[in-house]
From TrEMBL, chains A, B:
Protein name per its UniProtKB record: DNA-binding transcriptional regulator, MarR family
Keywords: DNA-binding
PANTHER family, per database record: CONSERVED PROTEIN, HTH-TYPE TRANSCRIPTIONAL REGULATOR RV0880
The keyword DNA-binding is annotated on this UniProt entry: yes
Lineage: Bacteria, Bacillati, Actinomycetota, Actinomycetes, Micromonosporales
Length: 137, 137
DNA sequence: TGGATTACATAAGCACGTGATATGACTTCC
DNA sequence: GGAAGTCATATCACGTGCTTATGTAATCCA
């Protein structure tokens, strides 16, 4: 399948876009989820984000240290931790999105109008593919 | 730009495909380059792979330890190191490609024929995009 | 020949991931 | 209602992969 190499190359390219001074993909993805769906328990975060529970604990520890998220207690369950995004967290997500958009836009501008159109046409299908990649059926 | 979120989601999805017991993207990419272009000096590897020289030194050290690559000396330059891929390295690349292909194929099968067609049509444009992402003009 | 440059290695440190295990809180069941 | 089990989270030990700063040779050149 030729598509495999294409996705690998895309993966490598996207890794390179990652602006060194912005938050990571996993950090942004988790904060965006908290922004979108409100405070979540740790155990409700690690699975959708596709990482182990210890990995999520550690990520939240880093986010908390950097003031991007907070740990709160769940009144209904003493074991649980309610994670929430802070204003600084929301700002960090927006900043990353902006930096990322700039990197993509720079590459995009160098494509032909036709190439751009083809890619934009494929966006819904690519989104579906991403979702399917996420769920190991 | 909607495309930014799409690429982020794709990036996250591709990260999740990565089979736990196969070599990493950077290892595979470097070994594939050695396979494609023959033995290379360390300094000729780190830049195209988009990592620092120490990162490449460390990668080659791990690859050498695992028997996937070898360090040889350059008769013409006593400072240089000639890195070559071994048969085991070639096998590891092939194995990873296979595992990766399987993951992609599984997702692909769940797409509609139309979605598949749209994505395949976009492959050349996506390759161009990947290449442009790689070069920070 | 001796100082600058080049190629690579080393060191210290951080992000991110894993599996195994500890700890404390809820639940269940006799 | 208390022992036993389960659940949520944390901690530990470890590995990869990345960075910047710096060390150490070998080569180049004025």
């Amino acid at each position: 399948m030729n598509i495999v190499s294409t996705l690998d190359r895309l993966h490598a390219g996207l890794r390179r876009i990652a602006p060194r001074h912005e938050i990571s993909l996993i950090a942004a993805s988790t904060l965006a989820r908290l922004e979108r769906s409100g405070p979540q328990r740790l155990s409700d975060l690690h699975d959708p984000e596709g990482v182990s529970q210890p990995a999520m604990t550690q990520l939240i520890t880093r986010l908390e240290r950097d003031g991007l998220a907070t740990r709160g207690s769940d009144p209904a369950d003493g074991r649980a931790v309610r994670v929430a995004v802070t204003d600084a967290g929301r700002a960090a997500v927006a900043r990353r999105r902006g930096a990322h958009a700039e990197g993509v836009a720079r590459a995009f501008r160098q494509l032909s109008a036709e190439e751009r159109a083809i890619i934009l046409t494929a966006v819904p299908a690519l989104d579906r593919l991403s979702e399917l990649l996420r769920t190991p059926d």
